[in-house]
Structures are given as structure tokens and as C-alpha cells.
Design goal:
heterodimer, A: mainly alpha, two-stranded antiparallel sheet, 11 helices, 2 strands, globular, B: alpha/beta, seven-stranded mixed sheet, five-stranded parallel sheet, 17 helices
């Protein structure tokens, strides 16, 4: 019992953590139609900026989590406004190449600015450490991550479905030209959505500072692959799908690691293959 | 050129006070060759060394510290008159962790850049990927980090690829020596969380095989292997804590070890499991990264630890290193530094930079290095030397945990012995 509950908790927290990163990736793909390979870099930058605020301003973690991602938004603005905008009309491989170039650039900039070695933030006493659950300690912070995931999902849903802005974004994503014809300033809207997506990734990075406990120049490269798997399973561009995909991947890999260790990585790829065979567009994706 | 000379002078002034390595006659002069080697014509041109290590991605810090050690060796050697009177040149390249990149680097170094010697390599997978290209390129390659014993036992000893040498400790340190420490601990049930690749599997198997022989009745109750790049160890930690072992053995290393220790602390693992061993826990990135958060009484070791041996050579080297780079030397800094000195000693002994002659000089060669006295074993080209195991303690002199109680097992007692198969080749002897 203790074991099953703890494996569930570990799975839920890692699933919600991946969701927070995948949400920005999915939003950007859903609206802009760009597979942003550099999303992992924004996650990494979020973590580094958050860490820097923490260390230099002696600020508390929450201030870092608010200020850090704002820097990343500025970086995201530059990337969209001056680079990405130029390749919207081109084929997907050009967008992948450009965003991948940014992965390499940001990895190296981080190495130059923060050093090649890993940075290990001191353990933060957020929410007072761990609580015993059925006789084994579990960090309260991870319970917080489990709670934040659904909140972000609900918030995004309300924003996109229930607000005027959301309607405009949905309109622009389903038909750029029509939206433009009725007076929506599509380029500006795309910049705003891209920056917002970067902000989501950066918040994921900020949350990673206590969750992972380590910052490295390549930290975005691992998470982007997980986020892609989640997005593909859920259906590229579908937030609902990404949420469900992250939940499934998180819990499945936790159970796989604990109970079927020989197959832990295999399980995820077999699931992805099965979903792609059965529904090539992903669980909630629209057939294109 | 003029500017360079000033730098050299200043550098000599700085190191001159402590630099026992420096030859007095070389001060202020850039002319090579000189000294006793001035008359030697057998060795022509600069000695070119191609060095590769991980310099990108999550392990980029390792490359940085390799570079610190190697650059320092090159600076000191050139300031002291070079190798056999010839200037040393070093080029550093990022090896990444991929086999093909390591191979491409070797080709570049030799075919395009004209390297006389090769050194470096962190990953065991890469170490096993390069032997055939090294044989074809026919240059001496000194491995400074990758630990798989298959490199020296199979590729060098059995297949006869004589160009390869290893100056760092192999998995014997992580598996066999750990078992010698574990036999004296009151733990009978052992478990592991280790890397899900060659290195992790090999060490855990070696640890089990040796400990079973040293301490009959001991059992190995569970294992959980984490893939490269794991950032969430919580399910692995659950696996281990569910099994309730007395002892935990883990060859997790670098950043992943830092993450693992933090997450294990959150789950209270160190309160439940009293005997914990980290064969590469004495790496400086881990000790400095964890700082006070490294639990006490954990057994750690590495490929070199800056506080051992406590003698003049080592202490002076550590002081020079700190002065030069403002860091404590990582173990890869020491192995990189010593690899360059091994090349120097071998070339000067051979009186040639010809591969065959240098191999002959290196075989059985003794080297006095910061890590202590090393001997390159003739059969498998593995350097024999000791690295202590020790228990973590706080020390007011350092902002991180260091080894308190140290135990040194003589290399010849726990290094597998040629021919590596059959009775009497694996410890205990």
C-alpha cells in the first residue's frame, strides 16, 4: 500500500511537471503551427534566471519564480519578432532548423554566462520540507506541483474558451487570413502567444530549481524530448491531449520503473507507437 | 610574440617560488630545443597532443576541469623547457558522449592537425568505440576518465591494441575496492541505484562477485537502474526503500548523483539505510555541489582526491592548481595533468616520439604524480595506483564535506590480474 501510494505520487508529480513544460510547447504549436525545438532552452533559461535572482538578490523562491520568467519573455520576444516570424511561410524543416540552432546558441550562452559545470541550488525549505505519508516522507513541494498542474490546465482552458482574447487566438489559429481580414493584427497576436508559451516553459524551469535540484547547460535537451512525446501522444496542438498525455506518461513511467524495471523506457515508446498506429493524430489531435 | 614572452616571464616568476618542476636554465628563453636535449636531433618539431573530453551538455563541467589540468601541465612543461627540448602544443575538442564524435575527433587530430599523441575520453561507451581507429592511426592514446575494465582487459590485453593506455582508475576501484570496504560494514543485505548503461552494470556485478567471496552470506536484494539523463529518481528511491536493505551501493555520478542525493534526503532514505557507498562520490563537482547537504558517514571514493596523498608533490600541486584556476582540482584535472607528464616522461625515456618506442617506454613505466606513485602495468597498460575510500565528515576548513576516516586498499590486492580469465585473476588473491 505504502509502495503503491508513493509510486502514484511520484508519477503524478513528474507527470504534472512535464505538463507544465509541455503546455507552452503545445500552445505555440496549436496557434502558430511552429514546432518550437527551442522550448527546452526557455525552460533552461527560466531555471537559470530564477536561480540567479535567488542567489544575487537573496530573494525568496517565489520572487525568483516571478522575476526569472520575465527575463525569458524578453528573450522569447526577440526570437519571435526578429527570427521565427521570417520562417512561418516556409516548410516545417526550416522552422525545426532555426529553433534547433537556438538550442545550440542558448546552451552555449548559458555555458558562457553561468559556467560549464552544473549549479546545485541549496535545498529550499519551501512549505517546510517533507510530510510523512503512510510512514514515508514525501516533499510538500511535490504535492504543490501536483496541485499546480491542474490549476494551470483549468486556467488555460478558461482563458482560451471563455475570454475575448481566447476567441481571437482560436480564430487566428484556425484561419490566419480570415482573422486578418476581419481586423485581427495576427503578427502581434502571434508574438504575444509565443511570448506567453515561453513564459510557461520558463515557469516550468523555475519550478525545476527545487524539483530537480540541479541546473546544467544541457538541461533543456532531456525535458524537450519528454515534452514532445507527451505532445505527440496527446495530439500536437491539443492542450487537453498534452495534459492527459503527461499524466499517462508520468504515472506509467513511475509504475514501470518500480514494477517492471526491465521495460521502463520501452513502455513509453510502445505506448507512443500504439497511439500513433491507432490514432496518428494523437489522442485529441485533429486530423490534418 | 613579445607579449607572449612577458607572460611567460611573469608566469615563471609566479611559479618560480614553488615550482620544483621548473628547470633553472629555461627562464626567460623561448628558444627550443635547449638544455641536455639541445643536441638531440631525433625529435623534431613541436610535440602535439590532441585532447578530447565532454565539453557540452549536462556534463560540460567535466570537460572544463580536464582542460584546467591539461593546460596547466602544458604551461608548466613549456616553461620548464618542453618535452625533450621541444615545445608542447595541445588542442582540446569536445568529445560529447557519442562514439562517432570521439572517432571523428581522433581522425581530425591525427590526419588534419598532425597530433603525435591523443588523450582524454570520459565515457566507457566511447572508450570501447575508439580502439580500432586508434590502432589504424597508430598513435598512443591515454585514457583519463572512462573506467570500463573491458578496454584494458579485452582491447589491450586480449586483442593486442597496444597504443591504448589508461592513467585513471578502472571499475576495479568502484566494484572490487568497494567490496573490500563493504566487507567490514555490518550490512548483509545490499541494494543499488546505478546508471542504466555499461558502467553501472559492470560495477554492480563486480561489487557483488567480490563481496560474495569476501563475505559469504551477504545478499543482494534489489537493483534499480536509471537511464542517462535521469532528473527524477523518486520511483527508483521507492524501489530501494520498499526492499529495506542495510546497505546501498550507487555508482550514480556527477549531476545525477547530486540530484539523487537531494531527492533521497527528501524521502528520508539516509535515515533508513545506514551504510551507503558512492564510488565516485568524492568528485569535486559532487562534493561542492552538495556542500553541507551531503549526508555524513557515507563512504565515497573517486579517481583521485585532492587531500590524498598528503605529501609534498600533491600538496604543492593542489596549491599551484588553486592559484592558477581558483578551484580545487577535480579528479579529471589530475588524470589529465598526469597524462601529459606521462607522455613527457615516455618521450624523453624513448628519445623519440615514434609510437612504437613510446609504447615500449610507457610499459612498466613508473610515474611520480600528484595522485601518488603510478606504474603502467605492462600487460594491459593500466596504471596501478591507489585512491582512498573515506567516510564523509564536515571540516571547518572546507565549505563541503571531505573524507574523514580514510582507507587505502593496495592496488595489487584489488586490481584484476592478467590473463583476466580463470583462477587467481580476480580478487581476493
Amino acid at each position: 500500500m505504502q509502495s503503491v501510494v508513493h509510486v502514484c505520487l511520484a508519477g503524478l508529480s513528474s507527470g504534472m511537471f512535464i505538463w507544465l513544460v509541455a503546455s507552452g510547447l503545445t500552445l505555440i504549436f496549436g496557434v502558430l503551427g511552429v514546432l518550437n525545438f527551442a522550448h527546452g532552452s526557455f525552460y533552461m533559461l527560466g531555471a537559470y534566471f530564477c536561480f540567479t535572482v535567488l542567489r544575487h538578490l537573496g530573494a525568496n523562491f517565489w520572487l525568483g519564480l516571478i522575476l526569472g520568467p520575465l527575463f525569458v519573455c524578453a528573450v522569447g520576444y526577440v526570437v519571435e519578432r526578429f527570427f521565427l516570424r521570417r520562417v512561418y511561410q516556409l516548410a516545417l524543416p526550416y522552422q525545426l532548423l532555426l529553433t534547433f540552432a537556438f538550442v545550440l546558441i542558448f546552451d552555449n550562452l548559458v555555458k558562457i554566462a553561468w559556467g560549464a559545470g552544473s549549479l546545485s541550488p541549496p535545498s529550499l525549505d519551501i512549505f517546510g520540507g517533507s510530510v510523512p505519508i503512510l510512514g514515508r516522507k514525501f516533499p510538500v513541494y511535490n504535492l504543490f506541483i501536483i496541485a499546480v498542474g491542474p490549476l494551470v490546465a483549468i486556467g488555460l482552458w478558461l482563458f482560451l474558451e471563455r475570454t475575448w482574447w481566447g476567441r481571437i487566438i482560436r480564430a487566428a489559429s484556425s484561419d490566419r487570413e480570415m482573422a486578418s481580414a476581419i481586423g485581427v493584427r495576427v503578427p502581434l497576436l502571434f508574438t504575444a502567444v509565443f511570448v506567453f508559451g515561453c513564459w510557461l516553459g520558463a515557469v516550468g524551469g523555475g519550478l525545476a530549481v527545487p524539483y530537480v535540484g540541479l541546473l546544467t547547460p544541457g538541461m533543456g535537451d532531456t525535458i524537450i524530448i519528454e515534452a514532445f512525446i507527451v505532445a505527440v501522444i496527446g495530439g500536437l496542438g491539443s492542450l487537453k491531449g498534452a495534459f492527459l498525455g503527461a499524466l499517462i506518461i508520468g504515472v506509467l513511467s513511475a509504475f514501470g520503473t518500480r514494477y517492471f524495471p526491465a521495460f521502463d523506457m520501452f513502455l513509453i515508446f510502445i505506448l507512443m507507437a500504439a497511439v500513433l498506429l491507432w490514432r496518428p493524430q494523437g489522442l485529441f489531435g485533429e486530423a490534418r | 610574440m613579445g607579449k607572449k614572452e612577458i607572460n611567460r616571464r611573469e608566469f615563471l616568476k609566479l611559479t618560480g617560488a614553488t615550482g620544483s618542476l621548473l628547470a633553472a636554465g629555461s627562464v626567460g628563453s623561448l628558444a627550443f630545443p635547449k638544455g641536455v636535449w639541445a643536441a638531440t636531433s631525433a625529435i623534431k618539431g613541436p610535440i602535439k597532443i590532441g585532447y578530447q573530453a565532454i565539453a557540452s551538455g549536462t556534463l560540460a563541467g567535466y570537460g572544463q576541469f580536464h582542460k584546467y589540468g591539461v593546460e596547466m601541465a602544458v604551461e608548466e612543461i613549456n616553461a620548464g623547457g618542453g618535452i625533450a627540448g621541444q615545445r608542447v602544443e595541445m588542442e582540446f575538442r569536445d568529445s560529447t558522449t557519442k562514439g562517432d564524435t570521439a572517432i571523428a575527433n581522433c581522425r581530425y587530430f591525427v590526419d588534419s592537425w598532425g597530433a603525435d599523441f591523443l588523450a582524454g575520453i570520459d565515457s566507457s561507451g566511447q572508450a570501447l568505440a575508439i580502439p580500432s581507429i586508434i590502432e589504424r592511426l597508430d598513435r598512443v592514446m591515454i585514457i583519463t576518465h572512462a573506467a570500463t575494465e573491458k578496454l584494458t582487459e579485452d582491447r589491450v590485453f586480449k586483442e593486442g591494441i597496444k597504443q591504448i593506455f589508461r592513467i585513471s582508475t578502472p571499475t576495479y576501484q568502484d566494484g572490487n575496492a568497494a567490496a573490500f570496504i563493504a566487507k567490514d560494514l555490518p550490512a548483509m543485505k545490499w541494494a543499488t541505484i546505478s546508471p542504466k548503461y555499461e558502467y553501472g552494470y559492470t560495477c554492480w556485478k563486480m561489487f557483488q562477485d567480490t563481496l560474495r567471496k569476501l563475505k559469504p552470506g551477504v545478499s543482494f536484494i534489489t537493483e534499480s537502474f536509471a537511464p542517462f539523463g535521469t532528473t527524477d529518481f523518486r520511483s527508483h528511491i521507492n524501489t530501494i526503500m520498499d526492499a529495506k536493505p542495510d546497505g546501498l551501493y550507487s555508482t550514480e555520478w556527477a549531476g545525477e548523483l547530486i540530484t539523487f542525493v537531494k531527492q533521497a534526503k527528501e524521502a528520508g532514505l539516509f535515515d533508513k539505510i545506514k551504510h551507503v557507498m558512492f564510488p565516485v562520490g568524492a568528485a569535486m563537482d559532487v562534493l561542492e555541489g552538495l556542500g553541507k547537504e551531503m549526508p555524513d558517514n557515507v563512504w565515497i571514493s573517486g579517481r583521485y582526491f585532492f587531500k590524498y596523498p598528503n605529501n609534498k608533490t600533491n600538496n604543492e600541486w593542489v596549491a599551484r592548481f588553486r592559484k592558477r584556476w581558483n578551484h580545487y582540482p577535480a579528479y579529471v584535472s589530475e588524470t589529465g595533468y598526469s597524462a601529459i607528464h606521462a607522455i613527457k616522461a615516455a618521450v624523453e625515456k624513448a628519445g623519440s616520439k615514434d609510437t612504437k618506442a613510446v609504447i615500449q617506454a610507457l610499459e612498466g613505466m613508473e610515474l611520480d604524480s600528484p595522485a601518488g606513485h603510478r606504474v603502467f602495468r605492462k600487460e594491459d597498460h593500466q596504471a596501478m595506483y591507489e585512491v582512498p575510500w573515506g567516510k564523509t565528515v564536515s571540516n571547518p576548513k572546507y565549505p563541503f564535506k571531505v573524507m574523514g576516516e580514510q582507507k587505502v586498499i593496495p592496488a595489487k590486492e584489488f586490481f584484476n590480474r592478467p590473463p583476466f580469465e580463470g583462477a587467481g585473476t580476480k580478487p581476493p588473491f
